[in-house]
Amino acid sequence: MDVSLVIPLLNEEESLPELSGWIADVAGSEKLTWEIIFVDDGSTDRSWEVITRLAGKIPNIKGIRLRRNYGKSAALSKGFEMAEGDVVITMDADLQDSPDEIPELYRMIRLDGYDLVSGWKKNRYDPITKTLPSRFFNRTTRMFSGIKLHDFNCGLKAYRREVIKSIEVYGEMHRYIPVIAKQAGFSNIAEKVVMHRKRKYGHTKFGMERLMKGYLDLLSILFITRFGKRPMHFFGAIGTLIFILGFGIAGFLTAEKYFYSVYKMTERPLFYLGLLCMVLGTQLFLTGFLAEMISRSSPDRNYYQVSEYINDK
User: Fold this and answer.
1) CB of 117 closer than 8 Å to CB of 202
2) Beta bridge partners of 61
3) In this structure, which long-range contacts are made by residues 131-140, counting pairs with CB atoms below 8 Å and at least 24 apart in sequence?
4) At what angle do helices 210-227 and 231-259 cross, to 10 degrees?
5) What is the model's pTM?
6) What is the pLDDT of residue 264?
7) Residue 211: what pLDDT?
8) How far apart are CA 74 and CA 64, in angstroms?
9) What are the b/e assignments for 151-170, b being 16+ CB within 10 Å?
10) Domain regions of the chain by residue span
11) Predicted confidence (pLDDT) per residue in 127-175, tens digit
């Protein structure tokens, strides 16, 4: 199969018939073999009924219904499990992403050889409660990840099948799939300016609450991808530096007391700072040691992505 369209949704019953028909027309005109996987993330309207009716008419349409609203990452994860296409394209179900972008996204993956192509909604029609958090996180993520994308959270993305079968998306990590893919070894990442349309039905499901969630998710993914299998390198290094600082302060106060005898050491605020640094440094070092012991007991401690083999018997 050429293309799998994974489309997570929440309360989008009005847009589904138009969206599925549009995708079918575009894929048919390009002579692509295709499937649509709608993932109903706990909708409370008639979205699942619409998906069931569409699937009964068009065999290429599949559906997954989650028992409750788990979030976009969970919906994408379940859709990725079912996807069978050589190229997997994700898009939102609200008709703001245009299916007319499918042929070029497919071409960039299959012919240009990219692992992942991320859309860039250069001209957006979203409210400020959605654009303001996105601008902040796009800038922050570019700085920390080194991936030069303008719009990490664009729902319209294309992947080689190997990418979505090799990464794990959970929590609220859908915002940082390019970062996850790069850390997994899929570094051939490109960007494409895509059309963004005004919302035709309903209203946006996201707002300013994404600000805190996105910030914490970014910290989590950066820590896990860099230090998940070697926590001692993080906690141990910081703990050692802080302990050395505290030990240096203690040594300075001891020397000052020995040569000058001006103050009692316990009367100096610097004494308590040095003591705090040594205690905190020791605790961080022990935290890293314990985390390392737990990591080495993990069943996937030696799990690494393999690109290909030669003469493997």
Assistant:
1) no
2) 36
3) 132/208, 133/208, 133/210, 133/211, 133/214, 136/211, 137/175, 137/214, 137/215, 137/218, 140/215, 140/218
4) 90
5) 0.75
6) 74
7) 59
8) 11
9) bbbbbbbbbbbebbebbebe
10) 3-227, 231-296
11) 666 667 777 778 878 887 888 899 988 999 999 999 999 988 877 788 8
3-state secondary structure the chain: CCEEEEEEECCCCCCHHHHHHHHHHHHHHCCCCEEEEEEECCCCCCHHHHHHHHHHHCCCEEEEECCCCCCHHHHHHHHHHHCCCCEEEECCCCCCECHHHHHHHHHHHHCCCCCEEEEECCCCCCCHHHHHHHHHHHHHHHHHHCCCCCCCCCCCEEEEHHHHHHCCCCCCHHHHHHHHHHHCCCCCEEEEECCECCCCCCCCCCCCCHHHHHHHHHHHHHHHHHHCCCHHHHHHHHHHHHHHHHHHHHHHHHHHHHHCCCCCHHHCHHHHHHHHHHHHHHHHHHHHHHHHHHHHCCCCCCCCCCCCCCCCC
Q: How far is CA 141 from CA 122, 151, 176, 310, in A?
A: 17, 10, 8, 36
CB–CB of 195/100 below 8 Å? Answer: yes
Residue pair 90/7 in contact by the 8 Å Cβ criterion: yes
Amino acid, res. 147:
I
Q: What is the mean pLDDT of the chain?
A: 85
pLDDT tens-digit profile of 188-212? 999 999 988 887 776 665 555 555 6
Q: Cβ distance 192 to 177 under 8 Å?
A: no
Both structure tokens of 19: 């969206």
- Average pLDDT for 217-231: 71
pLDDT band at 262; cut points 50, 70, 90 = low
Unique residue bearing structure tokens 């703001």: 96
Which residue do the tokens 């790069």 mark? 182
Q: Which of 49, 38, 41, 51 minimizes the C-alpha distance to 90?
A: 38
3-227 in CATH: which number? 3.90.550.10
What pLDDT score does 203 carry? 66
